[in-house]
Design goal:
This protein is of the alpha+beta class. The protein has four helices and four strands; from the N terminus they run αβββαααβ. The protein has helices spanning about 25-35, 75-90, 100-110, 115-135, and strands at about 45-50, 60, 70-75, 140.
Length: about 140
């Protein structure tokens, strides 16, 4: 939804109601079908992100099998995550370090709005940065 509304500076995200299943959201399904997002396309159960710049997620082929069938870019993942931070209230400095960790931890501990998204986004930002800074892969296994 953030990407769909990126040109609307007045847009604010709204949590799904407990009766809704965000996994079947039509906007999410559209972005899945584009197969360009390193965050959405890549499996979170198996596969790799590499500290290499590439525009799209790579998919394995018969001759080159990859666990999880996909290789994403740590650089692209970090950029996509940075595009979500303002909607989640995550403040980054020029080094992409999270500046308001205490405030975010309070939201997470109180199960506030978007607490899961904040936790996942902050964790993935730190992981992508580690991958890039240390020239290491991110492995989902």
């Amino acid at each position: 939804h953030a990407w769909e509304n990126e040109d609307d500076e007045n847009w604010k995200p709204k949590p799904f109601s407990p009766n809704e299943d965000p996994g079947v959201d039509s906007v999410l399904e559209d972005h899945y079908s584009y197969m360009k997002s390193h965050l959405l396309t890549h499996s979170d159960a198996e596969g790799f992100y590499l500290p290499v710049k590439m525009p799209e997620v790579l998919f394995d082929i018969e001759e080159a099998r990859v666990p999880g069938a996909m290789i994403g870019s740590s650089y692209s993942l970090l950029e996509e995550l940075k595009g979500l931070t303002k909607y989640l209230g995550i403040e980054l400095d020029d080094n992409n370090d999270i500046m308001n960790v205490q405030q975010l931890n309070e939201i997470i501990q109180k199960n506030g709005d978007f607490w899961i998204e904040i936790l996942v986004c902050a964790s993935l930002i730190d992981t992508a940065k580690f991958s890039i800074n240390n020239n290491t892969a991110i492995l989902f296994n």
